[in-house]
């Protein structure tokens, strides 16, 4: 896993943490694209990815509270799958945001070894 600059990561992701609360408030497609670009820039998208591995961890998106116990790799796996799905089915990321999955992942990253938000 690529080492992150905690200060740069905190600044980059604290804005999303505030914006990506679950619920019906809509986040624009451009803003979501910026988030995806930041995920790539900060090394949070896996280079090696297996849909089989995603399938075995997909239960985590069923209920965002499951993500509270996820590993950094599992969170990155979820983000990688969601960003790939977004390419073929626009709106996947917004749906995950609305359900609280993106917020839960950012919160989990902050609780473990990837201090992304303050």
Describe the protein.
The model has no long low-confidence stretch (mean pLDDT 85). Helix 3 crosses helix 4. With 118 residues, the protein is mostly helical. It contains six helices and no strands. The protein starts with 5 loop residues before the first helix and ends in a 7-residue tail after the last helix.
How do the helices and strands line up, and which of them pair or pack?
Blueprint (H helix, E strand, L loop, with lengths): L5 H14 L9 H13 L9 H7 L14 H17 L3 H7 L2 H11 L7
Helix pairs in contact: 3-4
Give the helix/strand class: mainly alpha
Low-pLDDT sequence parts: none
Question: What is the CA-based Rg, rounded?
Answer: 13 Å
* Chain-averaged pLDDT: 85
Terminal residue distance: 21 Å
Tally the helices: 6
Task: Provide a short characterization of the protein structure.
By secondary structure, the protein is mainly α.
Name some characteristics of this structure.
single chain; 118 residues; mainly alpha; 6 helices; globular
């Amino acid at each position: 896993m690529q080492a992150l600059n905690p200060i740069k990561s905190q600044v980059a992701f604290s804005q999303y943490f505030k914006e990506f609360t679950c619920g019906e408030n809509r986040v624009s497609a451009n803003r979501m694209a910026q988030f995806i670009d930041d995920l790539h820039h900060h090394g949070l998208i896996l280079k090696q990815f297996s849909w089989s591995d995603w399938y075995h961890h997909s239960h985590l998106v069923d209920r965002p509270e499951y993500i509270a116990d996820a590993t950094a790799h599992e969170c990155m796996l979820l983000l990688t799958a969601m960003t790939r799905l977004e390419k073929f089915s626009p709106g996947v990321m917004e749906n995950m945001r609305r359900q609280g999955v993106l917020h839960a992942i950012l919160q989990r990253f902050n609780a473990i070894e990837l201090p992304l938000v303050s």
